[in-house]
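Why should sequence recovery work at all? Because a backbone constrains its sequence more than one might expect. Tight turns favour small or flexible residues, buried strands favour hydrophobic ones, and helices have their own preferences. The token representation captures these environments compactly. In the example below, the structure is given first.
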């Protein structure tokens, strides 16, 4: 069996689809299934069992001999949430318990970290372990992910294989439920379809013109391919960036969304909301050399191609991956 936590969410549900496509059908999905708006992400999937996240460790104690691999992708991902208690509970302490269970039962583990750990990017975007204690995330979400990364690398006892993945700006199908936290591509599609225009955040940094803020946008299909690769290549444990290695502007993103919809571009700007203005990242770009060094050689999807696929094959028809 393969365990996937956060399975009804965005990235994890796409991973389940990828596993099913490779005929892995004994999949145990773990989540808070009371959040009904996410359940459609698992519709039609071939699954072994549903396990509530609060009951998972009791379940694992009974079934660990049947488990082959754990993908721990469940987390509270709201970057505007300010309650450290919430992040300590769901992101830090739950992940510690997962790690310790994988050590106890000798299970391989891939878990979700985040590019939010890099904060303003003053130290760059290298996933070298020596930089981990020096990183200063800009919000409690990023802090919770960085706290766990730092805790993990200092543990004397580790799973026989483990990998933490620092997700950059992931976009793609199955993010319909995420609301404000959905990708800018999703919001661009909604605005363009409804108003024939798109409003972006104005730059409050003199080094960047309006719309020229840059992020490393990575298609979710590439993310799950990396997860699948790591399940089959367990020689090199560690923390890895997961982006494309190429930063693109929000104007690039928006213009390509207009193009995918066959609409004439009409772009406006508004002030960045005050609750995120001081913690806004103006530039992210993953250093992908570490993942490449362990043999991952698939090309990453160009932003133009990813947006075209996402818009035409998922957003327009309202389809799921």
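From this structural description, the recovered sequence reads:
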């Amino acid at each position: 069996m393969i365990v996937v936590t956060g399975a009804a969410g965005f990235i994890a549900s796409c991973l389940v689809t990828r596993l099913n496509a490779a005929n892995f059908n004994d999949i145990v999905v773990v989540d808070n299934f009371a959040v009904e708006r996410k359940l459609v992400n698992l519709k039609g999937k071939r699954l072994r069992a549903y396990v509530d996240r609060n009951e998972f460790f009791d379940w694992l104690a009974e079934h660990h001999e049947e488990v082959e691999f754990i993908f721990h992708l469940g987390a509270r991902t709201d970057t505007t949430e300010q309650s450290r208690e919430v992040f300590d509970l769901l992101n830090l302490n739950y992940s510690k318990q997962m790690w310790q269970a994988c050590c106890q039962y000798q299970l391989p583990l891939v878990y979700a970290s985040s590019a939010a750990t890099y904060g303003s990017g003053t130290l760059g975007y290298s996933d070298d372990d020596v930089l981990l204690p020096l990183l200063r995330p800009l919000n409690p979400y990023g802090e919770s992910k960085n706290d766990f990364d730092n805790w993990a690398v200092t543990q004397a006892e580790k799973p026989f294989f483990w990998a933490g993945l620092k997700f950059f700006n992931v976009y793609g199908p199955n993010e319909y439920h995420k609301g404000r936290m959905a990708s800018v591509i999703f919001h661009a599609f909604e605005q363009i379809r409804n108003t024939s225009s798109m409003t972006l955040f104005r730059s409050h940094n003199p080094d960047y013109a309006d719309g020229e803020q840059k992020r490393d946008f990575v298609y979710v299909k590439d993310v799950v391919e990396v997860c699948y690769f790591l399940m089959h290549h367990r020689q090199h444990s560690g923390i890895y960036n997961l982006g494309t290695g190429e930063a693109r502007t929000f104007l690039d993103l928006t213009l390509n969304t207009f193009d995918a919809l066959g609409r004439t571009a009409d772009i406006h700007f508004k002030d960045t909301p005050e609750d995120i203005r001081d913690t806004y990242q103006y530039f992210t770009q993953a250093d992908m050399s570490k993942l490449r060094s362990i043999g991952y050689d698939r090309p990453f999807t160009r932003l133009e191609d990813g947006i075209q696929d996402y818009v035409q094959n998922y957003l327009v028809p309202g389809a799921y991956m």
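A few observations help interpret the result. The mean pLDDT is 95.
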